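Researcher: Good morning. I'm working through a list of sequences from a screen, and I'd like to move beyond sequence-only analysis. For each chain I'm collecting a predicted structure so we can compare shapes side by side. This is the next one on the list. No need for commentary yet; just the structure.
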Amino acid sequence: MPGGVVVLDPLISLSFSIYSSKGVYALLLGSGTSRAAGVPTGWEIILDLIEKIAHQLGEDCEGNPTDWYTEKYGKEPIYGDLLKELAKTPAERRDLLRSYFEPTDDEREQGVKLPTKAHNAIADLIINGYVKVVITTNFDRLLEHALQQRGLQPTVISTPDGASGAIPLAHSDCTILKVNGDYLDERIKNAPNELSNYARPIASLLKRIFDEYGLIVCGWSADWDHALRAAIERHSGRRFSTYWAIRNKKSDIASKTIKLINAEPINISDANSFFTDIKENINSLEEFERPHPLSTKIAVNSLKRYIQSEQTIRLHDLVMSASGQSIGELLKDKYSYNMPIDSELAIKRIRTYENDIEVLLNLMAYGFFWAKTEHLSILTPQIQRIANAIERGDGFRDWITLRRYPALLLFYAAGVSSIWSNNFRNLHLIFENIMIRENEKEVPSYMVLNNHKILAHTSQRNLAGIGGHITPLSDHINVLLKDLFSQIIPEEYEFDKCFDIMEYLIALCFLDHTLHTSRGDPMVWAPFGRFGWRNIEYDRWTAQKYFVENINKHGNEFAPLKAGFFDGNASKLTETMDKLQDFLTRVGNQQGWF
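Model: Good morning. Structure tokens for this chain:
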């Protein structure tokens, strides 16, 4: 109505709040978020355990297992006691509980007891820094599995001891507080009397979260978790809003709590669509802030036309113009280097760098895919030009090294494109002929343009919202380039192969260069990327397997060797691969990849 008040859809309002206040909202997840995965609730497990006990005794408890148990043993059923009746040792109890929470091969084929769309959408929000704290009454590990699949190992707190020794929430990429415990812990809470209070460390941590964060509630009825409901109601005057997702008619208890804390109710069909919609809304907001894609599209179409029609001069002018514009943006005074690195500012700067070179990055990706030999003299120098455009200068080390991030993206784009087109001569060209100024000398591109040299790994781990926990920057670059290459390499799996080969070669060349140029006995170290941990527990394709199989099959005729890598010597390559694998194994054991 003209002149009337416009009432926004609460889901849109929530999406804007999450997007504009990154990391401010905590999630409170109940059993409703895991129900679609086929995981039983704690109470359903108790009922099943009682039925198993009755069956062992040859008695019938159908109809009301809890009444049968109370009459039989003179007390209410308690989770820990039930477990001890059925499994005497910790190992036996773990095996018994796994049947409720971990999928069998058949269940895995059917998608049962695996992360749902809701868990995956939440994991994406966490990976991108929009959510950092999750409170859950669930015992399962579905969210943890979804995060681990993305390379992030969350901080999980499920006991009072864990809460006492936990690192500050602000210093963790993600903290999951399991207020009722974890399914492998006999101390999990199920019975009403168990849910009436929390140990002091858990209660104190809840107070902090409710004081400092906004709250998004989903899949939680509020009927049974009395202590949790009381903790929320005690802190109704929080500085950020509370949104409460409701699937069916809310209970009287939930209605009272929602009214008391002035929560914003949101009617939803299910948790899967709720969190998927939030993620897609935030993706749309991110897309809206990007530069208009028309200029990039025109530039790429022009590049294709100039290459096809052999208009070398126009191709030269197009690429040099895009490169000049990127350098102009990178040299502006919008960047400061004289302050400690901060997670939010670093992420913003990374995304700004990406915008600064968007057109040139696309030209490099498509250019190296379509280019003929005579075009390489136009494309290749742009990586070196961008890398050397900014002198080192003064400032904090992380900001200084991060200035090479645009050149790294160009290097990766050219490399992935060359690998996909099976043109390892082009790849060898950008590896060995591009020289970057570093510490008053020039070094090959791979010595500088890798994710560890751009930003120290310790600093990467503090960047909430960039990639996963193990290789955050590598993961982020993978996602960014995967989208850019979607028209060149439509299959994600094939793109990941090219990306892993690129980073694997960077690590090999870096290690080989270090071993042959360092004085004395150099430390074996290499800049590992996603290839270092991805798929290591499965018998799947890996960059190492790809190299081993092709060396065994082709020897010195293996394409990278024929192109000039490792002096064309299979033995030299194999020796370096063995040293790299020893290093990765050592790091993997230290980091808990295996």
